[in-house]
Design goal:
The chain is mostly helical and about 325 residues long. The protein has one domain (about 70-325). The chain is built from twelve helices and two strands; from the N terminus they run H-H-H-H-H-H-H-E-E-H-H-H-H-H. It is globular, with a radius of gyration of 30 Å.
């Protein structure tokens, strides 16, 4: 028997090994697809229209602001901005050609004199309320949803987001006050994160600026988003409205006398309003100098500096006008 005759034949039931050609083709296809996706993402073809994920970091600080000092120019500027102290403009009344009709709202970028006069009972209780709210400890997680709202409000209305955030802190301790998202405050006039008046009028302060949210792009997600808009209880609607109101009263990116007057108008033309504007602006200036700090207190020295530069002239005019009214007229 020859050697070739004794060699066993292959087993016919064992499958042949698969060809590697298909695997290589698949690998090359997937590799090409991956490269194409990477190139598209880098060039903006993919994801350019996708909504941005809310940032966990606060917006960039526009600029560090020097601590103000008293000067004749400051006094003249703040007094001119605050108008004649004996003639306050009721909330809902608009000067400078801005529409005050119901439903029309306040035109974007309109500069008006809108004074949110607070009831006397609220003026008497606000000093303690503001101290309580500025001592509230706020978590970083809680604040993350507000950062994209602040950034949108700043880019839309040209108001420094630090001033806006300081008003937010003063009014509702960054929306942590118990009645922020329901009902009205203790004075039964105002509600929401930025404490808008919904009872004054005939056109309420809220009605004037309630449609301000339409000018900016709503973030994809944030806490307490309401199902209907506008709503004083929706953080985006309320904060955008506050930015619009501050802008209408003269606030811009600079944290100066115009920002002080806007904060003063936001509260109301009275002695509590002076203290309110002093603290709001001092907090914003402190943030600009040292970085945004959720739970940092306001430097008393900085409050004193802001008051000396901006608040003192207005307070003097207020007290002088009050004293003059108290003097009995001779018959």
């Amino acid at each position: 028997m020859t050697e070739s005759a004794t060699t066993a034949a292959p087993d016919g039931h064992v499958p042949l090994p698969p060809s590697e050609r298909g695997g290589w083709l698949a690998a090359l296809g997937l590799g090409s697809l991956g490269v194409a996706v990477l190139v598209a993402a880098l060039t903006g073809l993919i994801g350019s229209s996708a909504p941005a994920v809310p940032s966990s970091l606060p917006p960039a600080v526009p600029a560090a602001i020097l601590t103000p000092a008293p000067s004749p120019a400051h006094s003249a500027s703040v007094l001119a901005g605050a108008h004649a102290q004996g003639t306050t403009v009721p909330a809902g009344a608009v000067q400078g050609g801005a529409s005050s009709g119901s439903g029309g709202g306040l035109p974007r970028g309109a500069h008006a004199a809108i004074v949110a006069q607070r009831p006397l009972v609220q003026q008497n209780l606000d000093a303690r309320r503001f101290v309580d709210q500025t001592e509230t400890q706020i978590s970083t997680r809680w604040m993350e949803g507000f950062y994209p709202i602040y950034a949108t409000a700043q880019s839309t209305f040209g108001v420094n987001w630090l001033l806006l955030a300081s008003v937010h802190r003063q009014e509702s301790a960054f929306s942590t006050a118990p009645s922020t998202y329901q009902g009205l405050n203790f004075a039964r006039c105002c509600g929401g994160p930025m404490q808008f008046n919904v009872t004054n009028g005939p056109v309420t302060t809220w009605q004037l600026v309630s449609d301000s949210y339409r000018y900016g792009r709503r973030p994809v997600g944030y806490d307490h988003m309401t199902s209907t808009h506008p709503s004083i209880y929706d953080d985006f609607d309320s904060i955008m409205a506050a930015a619009h109101l501050l802008s209408a009263d003269g606030a811009e990116l600079a944290l100066n006398s115009a920002a002080w007057v806007a904060a003063y108008d936001y509260y109301g033309h009275d002695t509590t309003g002076v203290a309110y504007a002093d603290e709001v602006l001092a907090r914003a200036i402190g943030w600009s100098q040292h970085g945004f700090c959720i739970n940092c207190g306001v430097s008393p020295t900085l409050i004193e500096a802001v008051h000396a530069a901006y608040g003192a002239p207005v307070l003097h005019a207020l007290t002088t006008a009050t004293a003059a009214r108290a003097v009995p007229r001779k018959r």
